[in-house]
């Protein structure tokens, strides 16, 4: 008699949520072991849970210093969680299935479709193969270049380890670093090689695997999909616009860009513009930046990376659709048209839903944290948005969070990584198609 497993009846969103939660729990248990840190004492479970959530959700917010507190074992656990969390546990499971030459079942394909945010299962296994290839090639290139650079500053073995760790961390937009003292990459603000290699890793992981596949296939197809055009154009705009705004706001700030020369000013502004879009590394001290810059960075963190990527936020495509809807309304047009393509109404409703749910989540968490934490409103808003966008930048609040604050930020990171739509479907799977329509009514707006 065959044993029927109840979890088999779960919907794909529910399996994804439970899968990520399971990985986080395993990571928390491993990080709480005495062998995982340099003190030899067990890490409090709430701190282990926070670190595991931050790593699996590729965020980078930390309550203890990764480079000095965790042992080699703990750091390896963190980087494995980052890789699994960045690619998704279903992608990793598919990797092992392919290595063992096992057939990918229909149910696995449905899960992969949900995990990769695709509209169809067609070509999903081929896409996963590309995802794995792109990941290991790009991370490998980044690891080699960073290792060569850091070999001038430290023993080669350590430089190689640092190169691999930071290549994986940055490609997955995690922001974890090993330099100690919560310094991140502030010691390399003038270094063009470190800056551009890390930015390349961040952008490559942030534009999404669909776009990477389109770019690689461009020499054959000689065209890009609408999705890739929107992602690449909006990504370029946000990076350039963000660089200009940060450069202007921080130009005379002697604690940040004001103390740097011309090249350092440009690299500092450019790096912070790139990393704010869900990466979490920084070459300027975030807490020393002006309030105007902090608030502008909150907006960039809220937008985040692109669909099917290792980043979070509402995504560049959602933001583009919302802007397109405003422009179409102001011009009196019924359709949103991008690159000569009309967007379906269902896409517009989804973008609106994601944006509104995200705003409500951030507002709710900020309101609660304002009651539980002894910090300014802007600092709490910055921390919450950083957690939701899986960015990892902090003005210094993370290490001071209360137990309630840590749990709320964990929940926010989890929601930001999986997506609020996925969570909503997991809590209450969508029903069948509605077979009737109500009569049309009119409401006065504006």
UniProtKB/TrEMBL annotation:
Its main location: membrane. Keywords: Cell membrane, Ion transport, Membrane, Potassium, Potassium transport, Transmembrane, Transmembrane helix, Transport. GO terms for molecular function: potassium:chloride symporter activity. InterPro entries: Cat_transpt, TrkH. The chain crosses the membrane at residues 15-33, 45-64, 76-100, 131-152, 193-218, 230-249, 294-327, 348-369, 403-427. One of its GO terms (cellular component) is plasma membrane. It is found in: Cell membrane. The keyword Zinc does not apply. Pfam families: TrkH (PF02386). It is a multi-pass membrane protein. PANTHER family: KTR SYSTEM POTASSIUM UPTAKE PROTEIN B, TRK SYSTEM POTASSIUM UPTAKE PROTEIN TRKG-RELATED. This is ATP synthase subunit J. It comes from Paenibacillus crassostreae.
